[in-house]
Amino acid sequence: MTARPRPGADPAEQLARYRDWARHLEGVRADYLRRTPLYRWGFLALTAAGFACFALGTFAGIWGAGSASFVSACGLAMLRVRVWEIDVEIGEMRDEIRRLERETSKG
Predict the structure, then answer these.
(1) What's the pLDDT at 104?
(2) What is the model's pTM?
């Protein structure tokens, strides 16, 4: 979040809002990381079920294994990208907080 404070807004209020938002994002990130092993097991189970489709025939096995592997890989990639996005947003938020702290300490 790179939003600047509104003109005339109280810097202390903006600082408190940014700190609250940074804490919220850190909680969301921690929640994603806490659930990552569960997602990995789910994606592994989905991939295993896809390969089990070979019991129904070659075409079904190829289709099921390919689809399950693709969905699993994309799901894990999306999870990693979301955690990375949150890391970037937290970093930007911390920079904004430091900037506001400097402004409020000057004035």
Answers:
(1) 81
(2) 0.76
